[in-house]
Amino acid sequence: MDWPVMVFGRAATALLIERFAGYPDALFERLRHPVVWLGSLVGLLDDKLNLPNVSPQDGRLRGVAALAILIAAAFIPSVIIANLLDGWSWGWLAEALLATTLIAQKSMRDHVVAVYDALARSLPEARSAVSRIVGRDPAQLDESGISRAALESLAENASDGIVAPVLWYALLGLPGIAVYKAINTADSMIGHKSEKYQYFGWASARLDDLVNLPASRLTALLFAACVPQSFHQILAITRRDAPRHQSPNAGWPEAAMAAALGLRFGGPRSYQGEHIDLPYMGEGRDEMDRSDIKRGLSLFSKAMWLLFAALIALYVIL
């Protein structure tokens, strides 16, 4: 396996297959999922290395060690598998199929569609559906709040659940997407700012910020490109509003989607009983309904097709 790999054609194939197939339920029941395997290892490392009453420096070093073990556990098998498949005529397709397990395009769309469908039935059902994809308290959300939560989650996960893994796969092959997913899984489990993880999760959070940086900007560009008549305006709003977000990356796809849909994301919300006021992004309507979710899903779909087309173009050119 040459390095860097740059498998644009395989990345396009993986994106296309995963769009329609996703991860089969039967396979999940038998083998679980690679992210579940990674999560189990993170949990084990957390139990063994994240000890109470250690110094901040020791806590960070333990977190770095845990992250290094996790990355090695993803990198080494993926390199071995990639090398084995390189010697087989249909190895490129087998590798693309393996890569689909680390892309979340279909599952993300299905979850947001579930919120859209639930809103047509009742608010309690919609609150239950949206609680599966957001961390905020759903109990008091009305239709507008549920729609906003679904759209913000769709925008953010378009970046770190789809564009980022596809990008790292396209650039660095199977090891690239495997290592990215390991880092992203670690961040989701131990990278948050709490008393338990403020030191142990420091390395995971910082590295996740770094590896998601290019994809967050690319996702914003894809959303803007789907509305060519407003392309420059969407980018201007995104550049202005994205840095206001508490995350260095999440604000970019969220601000771009808000601008593309003529909506305004952000604002007050509650997490585990704690009231938080987030800065607003976009210049459009504050009130939203299920029709805006439908428009958001359409924008998401167009952006993913545009990503697919870009990968095919790069494959043909390079």
What does this structure look like?
With 318 residues, the chain is mostly helical. The chain has twelve helices and two strands, in the order H-H-H-H-H-H-H-H-H-H-H-E-E-H. It has helices at 8-21, 25-31, 34-49, 56-86, 91-100, 105-119, 123-130, 143-190, 202-225, 231-241, 251-261, 290-317; strands at residues 265-271, 274-281. It has a two-stranded antiparallel ribbon. Strand 1 and strand 2 form a beta hairpin. Helix 1 (8-21) runs antiparallel to helix 12 (290-317) and helix 10 (231-241) packs across helix 11. The longest helix has 48 residues, at 143-190. It is globular. The two termini are 17 Å apart.
Sequence stretches where pLDDT stays below 50 over 5 or more residues:
none
Indicate the proportion of strand residues. Answer: under 5%
Using the alpha-carbon principal axes, give the shape: globular
Helix content: over 70%
Which strand order does the major sheet show? 1-2
Count of DSSP-assigned helices:
12
Distance between the termini: 17 Å
- List how many beta strands DSSP finds: 2
Q: From the alpha-carbon coordinates, what is the Rg to the nearest angstrom?
A: 20 Å
Question: Residue-averaged pLDDT, rounded?
Answer: 94
Structural class: mainly alpha
| Helix-strand string | HHHHHHHHHHHEEH
What is the multimeric organization of the chains shown? single chain
Sheet having the most strands: 2 strands, antiparallel
